[in-house]
Amino acid sequence: TLECDQDVNDLTVTGDVTDEADNCGNAALEATYTDGASTAGSCANESSFIRTWTVTDACGNTTTQEQTINIEDTTAPTFTVPTAVTLECDEDVNDLTVTGDVTDEADNCGNAVLEATYTDGNSTAGSCANASSFIRTWTLTDACGNTTTQEQTINIEDTTAPTFTVPTAVTLECDQDITDLTVTGDVSDEADNCGNAALEATYTDGASTAGSCANASSFIRTWTLTDACGNDNTQTQTINIEDTTAPTFTVPAAVTLECDQDVNDLTVTGDVTDEADNCGNAALEATYTDGASTAGSCANESSFIRTWTVTDACGNTTTQEQTINIEDTTAPTFTVPTAVTLECDEDVNDL
């Protein structure tokens, strides 16, 4: 019985006739053989045939004997298993251009159509949620069921940071809420190559830097996104605070004074008491300047415009006007002389 890759014509393997003999002493006798048709065996690479040996002497006397030669295939095919490989979690473990493929399948019986196949074992958890490993078992079987099995380790890792778009720099009024992400901008496109659906970017705010006036400043908001394997992506957003809104107040109503009242007495003319600013400046104080008088309907009557102004810490100013009228509706006073008695010759016009 020979292996399928052995040479059936190699008589050192199949056996040779070495003891030819003849009663007449013919020294030059040499047995020869012919091979019969093959009979198929139990598989594609197995068969058998009859080898008929013949030896004939010098007078034509012939002896014939048969030898059965069996061909078998008991040798497993060979291949080189791909080396252990490490993939990113978003790579396709079934892409053999990435994981490695078997390309050198070979069989001692010369089966040209051999193709190694694989099955993947259960995953073993790695050091983080997106890391794991598994064994890929490669199998190659020839036409007679001889099998070679080898293992390849495939490691899955996550070394790629998640991604997001940082909000653009933004400028807020000083009374806007810097924690209101509908105003400052939010991260809404968190993504990870490993498909972590629950990613949420967070932020921390740095120290404020003073701006050009008391109510202006800026700071850096640092956004961070971390995936399940601790890969970080950090980006920064600049947030500017400004004060472009003028303060408010209620101007005193127009007022009419008697000409002898003090126009600087604010208890009479009216005062501003409700100065307010969107940035909460507590020390605001409205001031005023008085314009030129306009003559009224008589010498003691007039009017003028009082201009009230309030300015906040960033120079935003609100100006409103109050009309102050001066009138004279009070009759003059005097003391009448007491009753007097004159002689008839005295002059009544002599005061």
Describe this entry's structure for a reader.
With 351 residues, the chain is mostly beta strands. Helix content is 5%, strand content 35%. The chain is built from four helices and 20 strands. The protein has helices spanning 11-14, 96-99, 181-184, 266-269, and strands at residues 2-3, 32-35, 39-40, 47-56, 62-72, 85-88, 117-120, 124-125, 132-141, 147-157, 170-173, 202-205, 209-210, 217-226, 232-242, 255-258, 287-290, 294-295, 302-311, 317-327. Strands 1, 2, 3, 4 and 5 form a five-stranded mixed beta sheet that branches. Strands 6, 7, 8, 9 and 10 form a five-stranded mixed beta sheet that branches. The protein is rod-shaped and about 220 Å long.
Taken in chain order, the helices and strands follow as EHEEEEEHEEEEEHEEEEEHEEEE
Low-confidence stretches: none
- What's the N-to-C terminus distance? 175 Å
Helical amount: under 10%
- What structural class should be given to the helix and strand makeup? mainly beta
Averaging pLDDT over every residue, what do you get? 95
Shape: rod-shaped
| Residue share in β-strands | 25-35%
What is the helix tally?
4
* Alpha carbon gyration radius: 57 Å
Oligomeric state: single chain
Count of β-strands? 20
